[in-house]
Design brief:
Length: 202
């Protein structure tokens, strides 16, 4: 059994009465009784949630859920046996680790979101007053992906559009560089800075 859970990236981590009972060595009925007795105090830190679970007997049981501050308050009401003290330490660490994990997941999601934004949309949003921006960055992306500008590529391959001249690897490389250019623009780099960074890798 884990000490701390979460449902989604936007939700607070939580623990449950079952977890507190199992790891503190205090019976579940006592934890439930403490929750009901001090519910008003606990709800100073948010609504105390619960879920209904079916028991093996066929009856249903309410399982209380506590956010970090509610759990911290609740466990102060437990008598400080060695097991309870060990559990308090473990629960604090578990909430801290879970928050770090969630922060990293949120960061990764944001980076993925930014990386997947289209170059054209980024230019439209970030450089609305530059009529040559899309053409310049479009040519730069092709230069990085293929070593040629779109015009040079069409001439060399005898095609009507530069896309027709690309193999699968070049198509993937072109999409990646467009995403990188979009990120560079979002980070405040100008055309010359981006060109220098990209062409240095060729």
């Amino acid at each position: 059994m884990e000490l701390v859970y979460y449902k989604g990236l936007k939700d607070e981590p939580y623990t449950t009465a079952e977890v507190i009972a199992e790891f503190s060595g205090v019976d579940l009925d006592s934890i439930n009784r403490l929750t009901r007795t001090h519910k008003e105090r606990l709800e100073k830190f948010g609504k105390v949630g619960f879920e209904i679970r079916a028991m093996d007997s066929g009856q249903k049981q309410k399982v209380w859920k506590y956010n970090e501050r509610q759990a911290t308050v609740l466990i102060t009401y437990l008598r400080n046996t060695e097991q309870v003290l060990d559990f308090k330490d473990a629960l604090v660490n578990a909430f801290y680790s879970m928050k770090q994990e969630l922060d990293q997941a949120k960061l990764s999601r944001e980076l993925n979101k930014r990386a997947n934004i289209g170059l054209a949309d980024t230019i439209k949003a970030e450089l609305p007053d530059d009529p040559h921006a899309y053409s310049n960055y479009h040519q730069l992306a092709y230069k990085y992906a293929t070593g040629m500008t779109p015009k040079q590529l069409k001439k060399a391959k005898g095609v009507n559009s530069p896309e027709e001249a690309l193999d699968n690897d070049q198509k993937e490389r072109l999409e990646r560089v467009k995403q990188n250019i979009a990120l560079f623009i979002l980070d405040g780099n100008d055309y010359q800075d981006i060109k220098k960074k990209l062409l240095a890798d060729i």
